[in-house]
User: What shape does this take?
Amino acid sequence: MSQEKLCEPAKVYFADLRARKATQNRTAKIKKLFEAAGFDEIVAKDDLTAIKVHFGERGCDTHISPTHVRTVVERIKARGGRPFVTDTNTLYSGSRHNAVEHIATAVEHGFDYAVLGAPVIIADGPGQHQRDRGAGHGQTFQLGQDRRRHRTGRQHARALPFQGP
Assistant: This one.
């Protein structure tokens, strides 16, 4: 991909998830977002395809429904891709600050293979190590061990289903 293409502003897709007819349910709208974003064109057979999701903190419900994520998983599989659902650990303490508690929280919120139809992988791996924040400030932060990128296609796009009031 050219440097100019990488510097272009990201396109963000929006869908009002209120259903006014049975044919306009959330699943149908997520499928339309998938197509509008061009994901049907960039997922190829056998592509390992990450679906980055926020699994939510323990006790909170501010995350996407796992059944909506399953819709994306099914679209990727229909194209021959090999999807997995992923999130990254947090720097603050909470139920997502290490991979073990993070996966437990994900499962409590319904993010598991039985619901998603795809494996859940915490991108940071199980451990963390400290890094200097730089600029001589002496501050450190935690960085996961596994920093490899999993991405499909030649472009990076985002489709964010939004729930309206």
In short: The two ends are 38 Å apart (CA to CA).
